[in-house]
Amino acid sequence: MLLTSVSILCFFQAPSPELDALLGSAQGLPPADVLTLADGPALDALESWEFPSATPSPQPSFAEALCLTRLSARLGDATYGTLLAPLLEDALFRLAALSVLDMDAFRRNENAQAILSTWLQSETSSSAVAWAEGCRVLYDQGDGARRRAAVRWLKEAVNQRQGEAQVCALLALARTGATLEEEAILQLEALASGIHPNAGLAQSLIQGHAQKERFREKLEALERLYQSMDAEGDDSAITGSDDIGLLEEILKMARIRHMEGSYYTQEEMVAAAADGMLRLLDPYSTFFTGEEVGEFLYGLNPEYGGIGAYVNTVDGVFTIIRPIYSGPAYEAGLLSGDKILSVNGWSTADQPNDNIIKRLKGPPDTDVTVEIFRRGWTEARDFTMKRGRIEVPIVNTTSLPEGILYLELVSFSMDAAERVQRAIDSAMEAGDLRGVIFDLRNNPGGSLDAAVGICDLFLPAGKTVVTTRSRAGEEERLETESPAVVPTDIPLAILVNEYSASASEIVSGALSVHGRAVTVGQRTHGKGSVQTLLGLRGLQDERFRDGNHDRMHNEWEEYEDRNKNEVYDFGPRVKLTIAYYFLPDGSTIHTQRDHEGSIIQEGGVMPDVFVDFPNYEPVVLRELDRLISEERFRTYAKTLLEDFQETAVRLASYDAKDPALYPGWDAFFLSLDTLLEPDVARQWVRRNLRTLVSDLRGQVFAGSGFLGDYVEDPQLGEAIRQIISESGLDWRNIAEYAATLEVPAEVVEQEG
Question: What's residue 223's pLDDT?
Fold first, then answer.
C-alpha cells in the first residue's frame, strides 16, 4: 500500500479494510477508471464502510481524492468536497471532479458552490469545455445567486469569446434551461445546421428548448382563456379576484409542492409565467426582467465611459483580452494579454469581474490609473489615462484590391447609419472607390430607424424602404428623406445568410428591389415583425440624474436606489409584436406559421446570387478539433510573428493560398502528423495569425473567422466578381483575385 493511502487511514475512527483496498486500487488509474471503480460497490455494502471523520490532511493523491469523494457522495455525504479544489486546476482530473460535484450530495452545498465559483472566475479560456461545464454544474447545484451568476458568465462568454470557447459556452447555456435570447437561438441553429462535432447536441437542445416553450405555452393558455372570458364579460367565467386567485393558487402550489419550488423566487416564477404567455403568441414577443431590459437597451446603444477593452479573468488574474483600438487603453500602450493588477491603487486580486469593471468605468475625461504587468517585464508599471466615451465597434472595414470597400455591420444600433456613412466617406476621400460590399451575414437586426437611414445612403429621396401593417389595418410607409450619399455609379453588393434577420432583411430586400444592390449568399432568416417595448404601471425604472443627456443611465450617474441593492434597476418591460414588415414590392419578410409551428409561407429574402458556404467533412472536423485543442496552429502563428514579423503581417493580409510562403512550413506540417490537406492547415494557421496581428495594426480584420477574408470566403469572392464585372473588368486579370477566387461552376462549363 502506498503512503498516501496510509495517511488517509490515520483519520478513521476504526479500520476499514474495504475502503483501504479500494483507495489503493485507485492509484495510477486515469480519472474515468477511478470513477468506474468508485461506482462498483453496492450501496448497501458501502453503507457499512467506515469513512474518515474529517477531511484528510495532508492532501491525498488526486486519484484517492476523486475516489473518496465519489464514494461518500453516493451516500449523500459532502464532507470531502474540499478535496476536489486542486483537482479542478489539473487538466487531466478537472472534468472528473466536475462530474462528482454534479452529484446530488453537493446540491446547494456552500463549500462546493464556493469552490466552483472561485475556480470559474480564475479559469483560462484554454479549458473552454471544462469552464463551460463548470458553469452548467454551478447552475444545476447552486443557490439563486450562483445560478444567476453562472448564466451571466455563460452569456458573457457567448458574446465575447470566439471559436470553440464560444461554442462550449453556448451549449452549456442552452443545457441550463435558462431562457435564451433570439441571438443565442440563432447561433445554436447555426451550429446545429453545420457539420460540427456538437451539431447533434445543438439540434437536441433546440428541440428541448422548443418542447419547453410548448409546455409553458399550454400552461399559460389557461390564463389567456380566463382573461379573454373576463374581458368579454362572460358571467360563467371566473372573473376579477377569482382569476388572480387561480394564478396565486398555482404559484403557491408550485412553491410548496414542486421538488425545485424553493429554489426560485416568486419574482422569477411570475416572470416565467408572463414570458410563457407572450411566447405563445410568437417567438419574438417576450417578458424582460429589469436586468434583461438593461442588456437590451445597451445593445441598441453600445456606448459607455471607460478605458475601452474586452476583459476577463485568465489564470486567476484580470486580463485584457483585446483592447478596443479606438479607445484610451490602446492609445496608452496597453495590449492583448496585459494583466491589470490594480485600479487606482485598489487590488483586483480575487475580485469579481463586475466589481473591477465598475472601477474601470466612469465619467468621460476623468483620470484612471491601472497597474499593468506584461509577459517579459521584470516588474509592473502604472499607466494613467483619461476615460473616454467608448463606442463598441459595430462597423469594421477592409480595403480590398482594385478599390473595393468591404464593410461589415455587426448590428443595427441607433447610430449605425452614421457609422456606415463615416466609413464610406473615409473610403471615398482615400481614393478611387470602385465598389462597396456590405456584409450583413449573422446580423440579427436592431433599430428600424437605422435600417431606413442606411438605405437613405444609397437611394434617392422618396423611395419606399419598408411598410408596416398592424392588426388594426393601420399602415405606415417609411421612405428615404435625402439624396443618396453614395453615387449610383459605385456598385453595391450585399452579403446575407440564414442568420441575417429583421433590419438586415429590410436593408438587403429594399436595396435589391430598387435595383441598387445585388444580394449574394443564402436565403435570410425570415423575421419581419415589429416589436415595441412597453413599460408596466407601478414597476418603473429607478430615477437618475442624466449627466450626459442621453436619456440612458450610465454607470457613473447618480440614481435613487429604491431597494438599497447598490445597483441601478430598470423596471420590467413587455416586448410585443405589433406589426409586420413588407418590402417595396409588397412581399413580406416574415415567415408565416400555424399554431403548431409549421411553415405556411416562407419568408426571408432570397439572394440574387445563391452561394453556399462549404463545410468540412466529419473526419476533418475531428482532426481540427485535436490540433486546435493542442494549440498547434496558434503556437506556429506566434512563432512566425515573433521571428518573421514583416512576413507574418503580410501573410495575414494575403498569402495567395500558398503554404510555401510560410517560413519553416514543411517542418511544421510534418510535425502535425495529420491527415489534413496542407491547404486546410494553412487556413487555420492564417486564421490565428490574423488575430495575433490585430494588435500590431491597431485594427481588427473585418469579418469573423473565415467570413470577410476574401482569400477563404466564397460568398465574398462572388460579391467581388459581381463588383468587378459591373466595373467592366475581368477578375481573372487581377493577380490577387486570380490566385485565390474559385472559378464559378457556370464559367467552368462554358470553358470546358
Answer: 47
